């Protein structure tokens, strides 16, 4: 191994050690209470070194998000390759995520306070857009490859709706105090069946007005709809 390769490997190891130290402290003390100085001490590096690799605590959390995506991607790809029906595919994807995040449930609880899209750590922020969009694409693939027939006016929105369903389920799981989060397991099982049946029934002519309401609501949520003068005066 050349000196340059050794230096790169040492740098990567130091960066990983700082990240692990930060995550450990975030779990113990919460995101707000841990300082960069605490993190440097936990990692056994100088404060300047910690700032060299991560300019802030937010940067550390973003690194956690990015690592999560890298580690989850092959597992989710494998799940999509081995499953067929929409319900089976969605169940496999969400079960993998719940199992993966279980060791960091307390940390995710601390981060859930940052739900405002203006906060960089929010799953709805501009800073997390790339991570969010890649996750939404997986739901799109799960839908397409399942051969489920969905009206076109709903299909373009459905992957994002499924992602929002996932986020709601994860939030419930984070705050579920039942033993082994049994309430989440039950909620997941019941609601997933309902969601899939609603998707399967969405093509019925009688449900066209409901689909229009759903797509209009999404346009408002994501800032794509226009407010009327009357609405603006409310």
Explain this structure to me?
The protein folds into two domains: 55 residues, Arc Repressor Mutant, subunit A; 175 residues, Tetracycline Repressor, domain 2 (Orthogonal Bundle), CATH 1.10.357.10. Helix 4 runs parallel beside helix 7. The chain is 71% helix and 0% strand. The protein is mainly alpha-helical.
Write a brief structural summary.
This protein has helices at residues 3-29, 36-43, 47-53, 57-82, 86-101, 105-111, 129-145, 152-155, 158-174, 182-201, 208-221, 229-232. It is mainly α and 234 residues long. α2 crosses α3, α4 runs antiparallel to α5 (86-101) and α4 runs parallel beside α7 (129-145).
CATH topology of the largest domain: Tetracycline Repressor, domain 2
- Strand % is under 5%
- Overall body shape: elongated
Task: Report the order of strands and helices.
Answer: HHHHHHHHHHHH
State the domain count.
Answer: 2
Number of helices: 12
Termini Cα gap: 68 Å
The CATH superfamily name of the largest domain is Tetracycline Repressor, domain 2
Low-confidence blocks of residues: 225-234
Oligomer: single chain
Main beta sheet: none
The helicity comes to over 70%
Structural class: mainly alpha
The first-level CATH class name of the largest domain: Mainly Alpha
Based on CA atoms alone, the radius of gyration comes out at 21 Å
Q: What is the strand tally?
A: 0
Question: What's the overall average pLDDT, rounded?
Answer: 88
CATH architecture of the largest domain: Orthogonal Bundle
